[in-house]
Amino acid sequence: MKRILGFAGSNSSKSINSQLVRNILDRFSTDFETTQIDIRDFELPFYGEDLEKEQGIPQRAKDFANEIEKRDALIIAINEHNGSLSAVFKNLIDWVSRHHRGFLTGKKIILVAASPGGSGAASAMAYAKTAFGIFGGEVVATISFPNFYDNFENGEIINTQLEEEVQSKINTFAQQI
């Protein structure tokens, strides 16, 4: 059985990206084991070389890396802050990559980005796609989800075109893992 981990790069308790991850994970058949985690459970001090030298790699960074290591594939939803990843998510990646540079090696990834506006977090998506490759991950599909509040309601995608695109990419992803 293939194992899929899903999470959003947001520390908001009302994260639209977390909602979209849940929707996507729920679509996989029972041939897959799916798990969603909340990065708020892995809160870390801001990365700095001096801090790392003084205190080492925090256990929560190691725990997060372990969650990834246990899975075959990932659904990662990123949120965009000022055209980039959120500071909390970037910080988590910084710590984890110091623990194990290739922490995404061998992982197939669907990269998702929901936004309340029309851009679908395109800038952050482009950055993440490049960065995740540096750490060994293979982004096999991207889903840009613009105008979230107009297209998502009660846990469901209500825009037919977006729904078809999401399901098509999930089907392709499931075949690749």
Low-confidence stretches: none
- The CATH topology is given as Rossmann fold
CATH architecture assignment: 3-Layer(aba) Sandwich
Main sheet summary = 5 strands, parallel
Kindly report the name of the CATH homologous superfamily: Flavodoxin domain
What would CATH call the class? Answer: Alpha Beta
Structural class: alpha/beta
Shape, principal axes of CA atoms: globular
Helical fraction equals: 40-55%
Termini separation comes to: 10 Å
Domain NADPH-dependent FMN reductase-like: 3-143
InterPro entries: Flavoprotein-like_sf (IPR029039), FMN_Rdtase-like_dom (IPR005025), NAD(P)H-dep_reductase (IPR050712)
Pfam families: FMN_red
GO molecular function: FMN binding; oxidoreductase activity
Which key features would you list for this structure?
177 residues; Rossmann fold; two-stranded antiparallel ribbon; five-stranded parallel sheet; alpha/beta; globular
Overview of the molecule:
- With 177 residues, the chain is α/β, with parallel strands linked by helices.
- It has one domain (2-176): Rossmann fold (3-Layer(aba) Sandwich).
- It contains seven helices and nine strands; from the N terminus they run βαβααβββαβαβαββα.
- The protein has helices at residues 16-25, 49-55, 59-69, 87-99, 122-134, 148-151, 160-176, and strands at residues 2-8, 32-36, 73-78, 80-81, 84-85, 108-114, 138-145, 152-153, 156-157.
- It has a five-stranded parallel beta sheet, sandwiched between helices. Strands 4-5 form a two-stranded antiparallel sheet.
- Strand 6 (108-114), helix 5 and strand 7 (138-145) form a beta-alpha-beta unit.
- The radius of gyration is 16 Å and the shape is globular.
- Pfam families: FMN_red.
- Residues 3-143 form the NADPH-dependent FMN reductase-like domain.
- This is NADPH-dependent oxidoreductase.
